[in-house]
């Protein structure tokens, strides 16, 4: 079993097609077929079933696919570590930032990092905390900002802030003039949710569950600006991090603290355990923690 064979196998699964995988890898289709046949012989298992509309993983193939992604990510990390040993920081750094965290905490960090390391291409990958885990396991993201709880068995976490959710309502809403709101007062309010994978949704669902209720969902969006616009239009209410309102204009909206319970959570930078962070990633984390006034333990 070799790295090339694993890479060919993973690409065929991701492309769902031998021909497209061959084009992506700039090799011939027979070369990919031979490589996967060799894998199957070595493992004494059928990995893929060709179908008219693509390929289908067998149970053995599914196990190999998930492990192969992690092996390839670690191999790429090793290459990065060896290449980064000498010389100025160059290359691509893929950083994962959830949309609700990015603008609040990282706008200045992105600016300073780009000024300090102009030869590094900084790619910001916007995903929810739930999707960030898979992205790091696959090697699509090297380091990310995430919301707790997060898998501490597989990731190193460097906490940098504690935030809480605040109620956001149209300024004509009956609750708009209150100094604080108990969560129980929101049980009959229509909520504007983010897309399914966002951790904020879980916090709201869990808080409703304490009262034996399910949230009333009036709409969903993956874009903060659209969520705020829907609230401003009176479609519903939403909950967003307190830290956002230090840097955002909130015309037509009212921000109200939520009590009983206070919906708080930790924010952290995450890296995959067992991987060797590139010097680019290490520089990013150290700069971020410095600017966020947190000690670095890298």
UniProtKB/TrEMBL annotation:
A Pfam family it matches: HTH_1
Keyword Chloroplast applies: no
GO molecular function term, any single one: DNA binding
Keyword 4Fe-4S: no
Any GO CC annotation of this UniProt entry: cytosol
Record-annotated HTH lysR-type domain positions: 1-58
Residue intervals passing through the bilayer: none
PANTHER family named among the record's database cross-references: HTH-TYPE TRANSCRIPTIONAL REGULATOR YBHD, NITROGEN ASSIMILATION TRANSCRIPTIONAL ACTIVATOR-RELATED
Family indicated by similarity: Belongs to the LysR transcriptional regulatory family.
UniProt-recorded name of the protein: HTH-type transcriptional regulator gltC
